[in-house]
Write a structure and sequence with these properties.
By secondary structure, the chain is α/β, with parallel strands linked by helices. The protein folds into five domains: 2-108 and 203-287, Rossmann fold, CATH 3.40.50.300; 113-194; 309-320 and 323-399 and 552-579 and 630-681, Rossmann fold (3-Layer(aba) Sandwich), CATH 3.40.50.300; 403-540, PCRA, domain 4, CATH 1.10.486; 740-801. It is built from 31 helices and 31 strands. Strands 16-19-15-20-23-14-25-24 form an eight-stranded mixed beta sheet. Strands 5-2-9-10-1-11 form a six-stranded parallel beta sheet, sandwiched between helices. Strands 26, 27, 28, 29, 30 and 31 form a six-stranded mixed beta sheet that branches. A hairpin with a 4-residue loop joins strand 30 (878-883) and strand 31 (888-891). Helix 15 (407-420) packs antiparallel against helix 22 (529-540), helix 19 packs antiparallel against helix 20 (484-493) and helix 26 runs antiparallel to helix 30. The protein is globular.
């Protein structure tokens, strides 16, 4: 495998595009070059960049450093034609593509579906619950092993299954039991997936299985000759094993990445995959020219990476080659420390205020929308929000805490859960704590809440608070009367709390989140309340789910993980003193290499290997934290601000790195045009109230105007108006699908179609084609036979009228003529059955299959058609109704038609 190290800003995507051009010039068709990257957005960008490069080469013969060899333009023309089908995917997309080439050989349905991870987790949990139930039987083989305590470690193992092909127990009986139970649940889960469902991790496993199947592998190698992989530092062990197996089989694999930017261990990424490729593969020259950073930031980044590499903190020297800056911009670096506070939390309050002041001052040079503030953890965000609000700095929170765990979302979840099951204490406690738990807008005291929860029958105790009890009953009534999504809307918007709605108690930010929750469910409304609650519960477990991105202009606040791949003219990194999260997982894993791929040993708490595994995991997490620091500081183009709070133990975390570099709080202060280093003694802030907003200008005179509803929709048909007159149409139910056509409608549709096609009832082939029309699909054989008999009779009547009451032959004849007539605010759209000319006379006819004559009900429809023909064709036709069932032709008085149109135009719905 060929591997290239590409530091931040050195043009990884450009290097891949150039490699595409070199391969095409050497004779490799674009359709045989696969590209794989991590996100759909990145794959789409790569495709666009390749397209741009092809166009430039065909127009100018060169692109960046590439010059097309003489006589190679035909190959680039071919590549341009193949671009729309070029195999450029995400990694999972590439695996999907390969599997579909050989699906039957691997026991897969070629049309298999790739599931979302949350769906896979739900299925695994269901299989676990099934096993818990079955294992209660003493004769079940796993009866002595299954217990509820295994639920958390089982789900943890399931979430990390991309780390290896199998989990093996480390020393200890508890580890053996967990592995055995996991294997039983996982086997049932795999059986449930069958041949048609593949979640992401199972997609990876199946792709690895493909590489061990010679015939299936040969199908892939017949289609692809070269594979270019971007961001290789972020592949997980199964993905790495897949790429290595393809390379061993003869596919040319070239990877580009940066070990210094491997920060996705929580998504199972393993930097060792890149390091092994560097050790065992062919190392290409690194990309060492940065097109992103100003000169000062280039020097700072080189010094930082050298410092970390020398100490083995996150990466090695060969993984951190020095880079050279291309831009002439000098740039600016600022480092600000806060010390002397009673606690780090209080120091962070002042640190955020210091940062706000610097951003406000620098806003004269860089607009707020060109700034970003990066944080290591969302726990740092509230300090920034408070400071920015007080300093009146506009900001946008691009990604907040777990969205489905936000308080406003959980309030709604528990209110619905309590209404469904009033005995649930957890939901009752949440309900009482939420805005719903207010009596006369007075929140229940803590003692009252505790008394209710301790009662033998809490719901009966709730009746001592009539307002609260009635509120709960109204919510239960909503669930009985409305579909789940509509009930959720009403829970948010109806005045259930002392004449006020739940949304009235929310901040603007929380209201945005609740609105987004409704939008989320709108395209696919849940069929049951249980389904809605289950979906919310599953979503709350998604580690990556976040606040709804805010819109607007201002400083962007986001985590370093979210900032990867992005850049801004000015970047601030806040709260450098925050350390690693010390929380423990229920178990720890350790990688081992096996003949057929990586496996993971597991160790539960209390087993002999647990402490050793945990220490190794924490060491790896600490290494990744240094790489995360590099990613953070490499996002800035021109100006980089670093701020940190220092406690009694001195600089910690990323602050400790800068202190070791001589840039800590005890370093000599600087204040130069390109560099500032300052330590701020802590002081308690006493914020002044912001000045009152100016008086709003007087409203424009048009703001009080009312826009009355129009009598008809913007686009309407005369026939729909006729049905509306007879009886208002019910609103369609999306869950019921399309309305089944009735017999009369089917007959009318077929007769009109046959007349338009000039089909004769005595022609068997034409009648067979008529019977095959879609409108006949809902009817059984006997109904079809009856309908066709009636259709033939009506067509027979029509043909008998031809040449007698209906002129024939005709000089001009137009069937099924579409018309659109603007009248007022509505465009009336319909279809004229027949418009034809015999001699100098024009006829406008409408065919009816009615049982009785009632011409007046069609006056408006035919009046619209008459007016449309007058305006569009400039003719005055005779207007007639043709009653096929009765064999009669009824001429219509034009004055009556005009009067019908005028009366409808004057009406109001």
């Amino acid at each position: 495998m060929k591997v290239r190290v590409a530091s931040a800003g050195t043009g990884k995507t450009a290097s891949l595009v150039l490699r595409y051009l070199e391969l095409i010039a050497s004779g490799t068709p674009l359709r045989r070059i696969a590209g794989a990257t991590f996100t759909r957005k990145a794959a789409g960008e790569l495709r666009l960049r390749v397209e741009e490069a092809l166009e430039v080469v065909l127009r100018q013969g060169a692109y960046l450093d590439f010059r097309a060899p003489e006589g190679s333009l035909a190959a680039f023309e071919e590549a341009r034609r193949e671009l729309s089908g070029a195999p450029i995917f995400t990694i999972h997309g590439l695996m999907d593509h390969c599997l579909r080439l050989a699906a039957p050989l691997l026991g897969l349905d070629p049309d298999f579906t790739v599931l979302e991870e949350w769906e896979a987790r739900a299925m695994f949990e269901e299989e676990w619950r099934t096993l818990v139930y079955l294992a209660k039987d003493p004769v079940h083989p796993l009866h002595p092993l299954v217990s509820e305590e295994l639920a958390e470690p089982l789900l943890y193992l399931f979430s990390r299954r991309s780390l290896g092909q199998a989990f093996l127990p480390a020393e200890g009986e508890a580890n053996r039991v967990l592995q055995q139970v996991y294997q039983a649940v996982y086997s049932a889960y795999r059986a449930r997936l069958g041949a048609g469902l593949l979640p992401p991790a199972e997609l990876e496993r199946k792709a690895l299985e493909l590489t061990r199947h010679p015939q299936a592998l040969s199908r892939v190698l017949e289609r692809l000759e070269v594979l270019l992989v971007d961001e290789y530092q972020d592949v997980n062990p199964l993905q790495g094993a897949f790429f290595e197996a393809l390379e061993r089989a003869g596919l040319v694999v070239e990877a580009v990445g940066d070990p210094k930017q491997s920060i996705y261990a929580f998504r199972d990424a393993d930097v060792e995959e890149f390091r092994r490729a560097l050790r065992e593969g062919e190392r290409m020259a690194p990309l060492n020219r940065t097109y992103r950073h100003s000169q000062l930031l280039v020097r700072f980044l080189n010094r930082l990476t050298q410092h970390l590499a020398e100490r083995g903190q996150g990466f090695s020297p060969e993984e951190a080659p020095p880079v050279e800056g291309v831009r002439e911009e000098q740039g600016r670096l600022e480092i600000h420390w806060v010390e002397g506070a009673p606690s780090l939390d209080e120091a962070r309050v002042y640190e955020a205020w210091v940062l706000a002041g610097r951003l406000k001052e620098l806003s004269a040079r860089v607009g707020y929308s060109q700034m970003a503030v990066l944080v290591r953890s969302y726990a740092s965000v509230p300090y920034l929000e408070a400071a920015f609000q007080k300093a009146q700095i506009p900001y946008v929170l691009l990604q907040g805490r777990g969205y489905y765990e936000r308080l406003e979302v959980r309030d709604l979840y528990h209110a619905l859960r309590l209404a469904l099951n009033p005995e649930g204490l957890v939901s009752l406690a949440a309900f009482l704590r939420s805005p719903f738990g207010q009596v006369g807008l007075r929140p229940l005291a803590l003692a009252e809440v505790e008394e209710l929860l301790r009662a033998r029958e809490p719901l009966a105790g709730l009746q001592r608070y009539p307002e609260l009890y009635e509120r709960l009953q109204r919510i239960r009534e909503l669930l009985r009367q409305h579909a789940p999504l509509e009930a959720l809307k009403r829970l948010v918007r109806d005045p259930l709390i002392g004449g006020r709605a739940y949304q009235d108690f929310l901040t603007p930010r929380a209201r945005e989140n609740v609105d987004a929750l409704l939008f989320y469910f709108a395209p696919r409304p849940p069929q049951s309340l249980e389904g809605l609650l289950e979906r919310l519960e599953q979503l709350s477990h998604q580690a990556e789910a976040g606040d709804v991105p805010q819109s607007g202009e201002g400083v962007q606040i986001l985590t370093v993980h979210r900032a990867k791949g992005l850049e801004w003219p000015l970047v601030a990194v806040f709260d450098l003193g925050r350390g690693l999260d010390k929380r423990s997982d229920p178990l720890y894993l350790k990688r081992r290499e096996a003949e057929d791929g990586p496996v993971q040993e597991l160790a539960l708490r209390g087993t002999p290997c647990f402490e050793a595994f945990r220490e190794e995991a924490r060491a790896l997490a600490e290494e990744e934290s240094y790489r995360l620091f590099y990613v953070a500081v490499s996002r800035a183009r021109d100006v980089l601000l670093l701020t940190g709070s220092v406690g009694k133990r001195g600089p910690e975390g990323w602050a400790g790195v800068l202190a070791e570099m001589g840039l800590g709080p005890n370093a000599k202060p600087y204040d130069r045009p390109d560099f500032m280093l300052k330590t701020w003694p802590y002081r308690r802030l006493g914020f002044e109230q912001p000045p009152p907003p100016p008086e709003p200008p007087p409203p424009s005179p048009w703001t009080a105007q009312r826009f009355e509803p129009e009598p008809f929709p913007p686009l309407f048909s005369p026939s729909a108006y006729k049905r509306l007159e007879a009886e208002p149409l019910p609103l369609p139910d999306p869950e019921e699908g399309e309305e089944r056509p009735g017999r009369a409608r089917a007959v009318g549709t077929l007769v009109h179609y046959a007349i338009a096609q000039h089909w004769h009832p005595d022609n068997p082939l034409e009648m067979a084609s008529l019977e095959a029309q879609e409108v006949m699909f809902p009817f059984g054989p006997e109904e079809r036979e009856g309908i066709m008999a009636e259709v033939r009779a009506l067509l027979q009547s029509y043909h008998q009228l031809l040449g007698e009451k209906l002129p024939w032959p005709r000089e001009e004849d137009h069937a099924e003529l579409g018309v659109a007539l603007p009248l007022g605010s509505t465009v009336w759209q319909g279809v004229i059955d027949r418009l034809y000319r015999v001699g100098e006379t024009w006829y406008l006819e409408d065919y009816k299959t009615d049982q009785e004559k009632n011409p007046e009900q069609y006056h408006f429809q035919l009046g619209i058609y008459l007016q449309a023909v007058r305006q569009g064709w400039g003719i005055e036709p005779l207007v007639r109704l043709v009653y096929l069932r009765l064999g009669e032709v009824v001429p219509l008085d034009k004055a009556s038609l005009e009067m019908a149109v005028a009366s409808v135009q004057e009406c109001k719905l």
